[in-house]
Amino acid sequence: MDYKFNTQSIERVGDISPKEFKRKYVKPQKPVVIEHLTRDWEALNLWDFDYFKHIAGEITVPLYDSKPITANYKYNEPQAKMKFGEYIDLLQSEPTDLRLFLFNLIKERPQLQQHINFPSIGLRLFKSLPFLFVGGKGSKVFMHYDIDLANILHVHLYGKKECLIFPPSETKYLYKVPNALKTNDSIDFSNPDFEAFPALKFAKGFRTQLHPGDTLYMPEGYWHYMTYKTPGFSISLRALARRPKHLAEALYNVSMMRLKENIMRKFKGDSWLIYKQKASIKNTHKALNIS
Ligand SMILES: O=C(O)CCC(=O)C(=O)O
User: Fold this and answer.
1) How far apart are CA 76 and CA 57, in angstroms?
2) In which domain, by residue range, is 213 found?
3) Which residue has its alpha carbon closest to ligand 1 atom 10?
4) Which ligand 1 atom is nearest residue 234's CA?
5) Per-residue model confidence as pLDDT tens digits over 50-64
6) What does pTM read for this prediction?
C-alpha cells in the first residue's frame, strides 16, 4: 500500500483480553486489528460467494456505486437493485464498483446467525445489527464516518481489503461536506491532490490491509476509506458510542441531519449538493487560514 498520507500502520494483536482491549484501545480510542477474535467462527470456512448464492441468491439487494450522488436520490438511497445471485455473478466475472453496503443479511436468512459468535471483548454489541458489506475487485468505499458514531468491529471474512482511517481529531483537514458524513467528492484518497486540497497534508491517519479472519476495531466516529483489492466481504458488529458528544451527534444525525438533507435535496435540487461541495473547501481553508 502506498498512500501519500501521513499514516502509521494499525497495531496488530493475536488474542487480547477484554480488560487489556479496553485499557489499550477503547479508552484511548485507538484502532487495532485483532487476528484471532473470530477463530471459532464457522462463517470463516462456510461463507463464500457460492454459499451466499445458494442460500440467498434470490433476495433483491440494494447496491451503491462510486458516482457522486444527485438530488434525485434520498439520503443513503441505493443507486441500483439486483438479485444477490446476479450481483455475485457480476463481481466474480469482472471488476465492478457496485457494492453492497450495511445490508442485514442475517435478518433475511436467520440461519446464518449460528455461524458467527459475538465476541466477549468488553463492548456491548448490538446483536440485531451484524451488517454485511460486499465489494468487487477495485471498488472503493468513499471516505466517511458512520451515522451512529458507533464503536465498530469490522470483521473481514473473504478476500483482501485495504483500509485508510482517520480519527475524528483530523476532521478539520479532511474537507468535510456540511450536513453529511463524507468528504469532498473530488478527493481521490488513493492518490490525493495536495495542490487542490492542501489541508490533507496535515491529516494523520492509520492504514492496514485486512485478510480473512482479521477484525479491525474502529473507535467512535473514525473516518474510513476502504479499497477492495479482490472481490470480498466483511461484517461489522457495533456498540453504542460512549462519549456524550458522539452520542449527541448520533442522535442528531439519525433525526435532524437526514431529514434536513432530504428536504434540501427536494426543494433546492442539485444546486444544494453543488453548494455543499464548494462549502467543504471554503470552510476548511477558512478555518485553517489557507488562501
Ligand atoms: O468495507 C466496506 O464495504 C464498508 C465498511 C464500512 O463503511 C463500515 O464498516 O462502516
Assistant:
1) 23
2) 6-288
3) 146
4) 1
5) 999 999 999 999 999
6) 0.96
